[in-house]
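Page 37, continued from 36.
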């Protein structure tokens, strides 16, 4: 079992208690342990962040860029080791984990470039001999709470813009998957990030969530995770002058019209629906197929699912890995069971595999459900597993109405050869991310990212839009007359 220390005040520290990390492909023995920090350790993280912020906010943006380039280089040099940690704690396939490392490095290289730019505007002033401008400055100490489904990528997505703009960050990674975040912190530390600018608080949320949220030095909270937790965070911060960014759930739909390239649609759906075992906020879980091609499309999809091998992420032959934990596996199985009781038909999958090789893992067979109605929970609620539900529709207008008939509004996709339908879909789909003839997943580091309605807050992540959340605007007027 591997022992990892966490980063506080520029030092690598342990604790009196440990948090054990398990491999979801075989949960019998822990693969690592990390410190389970206490409320006192949280206070120290904020103490150090306060000192680090005083230094970092005045650090040259060119120096920040240098640190970012160094961290990205270290991530790429250590890609095999870090990807193995992602596989071990999350269950992703080796290819998925390697892609996560590469994209995390991309974030720091991208924001290294943006760090060199000044963000502000020169304004005209009605007063004579006066020149006015506004510029962006850091908000202060940011609390970043990240999930287990992208244990390296999501911290990178938040840390890069937060640090590029001069903030200090206290990072709370998911207790199921803390190893990846610690690898990221080590790369930043060894690249020259000053002490205290980043602190990583590993531990049990039940013991440290209060101290993390209640500290009066928190200026902003960025969170990716479930709606229940996100709404709780929003309420807890409502009476404080703390800005909140939430990237929450989704019930993402893909529409396949009769004129679509069905093979291309199936290929995209396999990646969007079953990649990362369906544990993506942008995963496609609802599929609306024009009735005239519904049977043909369903047949092609079932053939593709049958060809995918379920197995441990470390195996090169694996197409779909395990879910992150036994709890998540059991939650997905309950959702499938409920759907069947409500009248859905299991077209393939629908259960945990029975073979001995899967006995100690968190596996759910890739599942496709038919005979689903809009009233069923499986159509309306996020499952967050390898489950795709199908419904036939009669044309474009009905399909768009079904896409928008949701509490969520994160991502949607349309497959068609009709240019008019494509443009109408882009205009009418009530989602933050809209794709045409490609998957609901796969947004790049410079693409603004975030959903509408219950899928998140008004602040986007990624791209230049992310800088709005991590900065405040100051307006300055200079009078140069005599």
């Amino acid at each position: 079992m591997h022992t990892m220390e966490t980063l506080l005040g520029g030092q690598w520290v342990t604790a009196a208690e440990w948090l054990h990390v398990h491999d979801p492909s075989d949960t019998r023995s822990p693969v690592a342990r990390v410190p389970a920090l206490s409320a006192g350790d949280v206070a120290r993280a904020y103490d150090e962040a306060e000192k680090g912020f005083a230094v970092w906010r005045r650090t040259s943006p060119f120096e920040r860029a240098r640190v970012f380039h160094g961290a990205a280089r270290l991530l790429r040099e250590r890609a095999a080791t870090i990807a193995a940690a992602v596989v071990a704690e999350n269950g992703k396939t080796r290819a998925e984990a390697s892609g996560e490392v590469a994209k995390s490095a991309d974030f720091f290289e991208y924001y290294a470039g943006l760090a060199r730019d000044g963000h502000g505007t020169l304004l005209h002033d009605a007063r004579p001999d006066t020149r006015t401008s506004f510029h962006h400055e850091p908000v202060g100490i940011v609390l970043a709470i990240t999930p287990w489904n992208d244990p390296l990528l999501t911290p990178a997505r938040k840390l890069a813009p937060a640090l590029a703009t001069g903030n200090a960050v206290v990072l709370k990674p998911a207790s199921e998957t803390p190893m990846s975040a610690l690898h990221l912190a080590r790369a930043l530390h060894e690249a020259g990030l000053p002490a205290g600018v980043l602190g990583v608080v590993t531990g049990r949320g039940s013991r440290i969530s209060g101290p993390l949220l209640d500290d009066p030095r928190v200026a902003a909270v960025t969170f990716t995770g479930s709606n229940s937790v996100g709404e709780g965070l929003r309420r807890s911060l409502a009476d404080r002058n703390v800005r909140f960014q939430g990237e929450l759930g989704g019930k993402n739909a893909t529409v396949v019209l009769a004129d679509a390239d069905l093979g291309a649609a199936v290929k995209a759906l396999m990646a969007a629906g079953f990649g990362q075992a369906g544990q993506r906020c942008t995963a496609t879980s609802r599929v609306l197929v024009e009735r005239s091609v519904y049977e043909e499309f369903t047949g092609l999809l079932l053939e593709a699912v049958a060809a995918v091998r379920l197995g441990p992420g470390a195996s090169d032959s694996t197409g779909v890995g395990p879910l992150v934990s036994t709890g998540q596996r059991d939650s997905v199985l309950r959702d499938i069971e409920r759907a069947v009781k409500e009248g859905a038909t299991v077209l393939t999958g629908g259960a945990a595999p029975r073979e001995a090789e899967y006995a100690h893992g968190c596996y759910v067979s890739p599942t496709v459900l038919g005979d689903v109605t809009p009233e069923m929970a499986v159509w309306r609620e996020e499952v967050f597993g390898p489950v795709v539900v199908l419904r036939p529709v009669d044309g474009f207008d009905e399909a768009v109405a079904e896409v928008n008939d949701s509490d969520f509004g994160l991502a949607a996709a349309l497959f068609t050869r009709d240019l008019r339908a494509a443009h109408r879909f882009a205009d009418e789909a009530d989602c933050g991310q809209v794709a045409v003839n490609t998957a609901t997943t796969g947004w790049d580091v410079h693409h603004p990212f975030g959903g509408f309605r219950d899928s998140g807050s008004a602040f986007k992540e990624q791209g230049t839009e992310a800088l709005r959340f991590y900065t405040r605007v100051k307006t300055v007027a200079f009078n140069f007359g005599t």
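Residues 94-115 form the longest helix (22 residues). Flag for discussion at group meeting. DSSP finds 15 helices and 22 strands in the chain.
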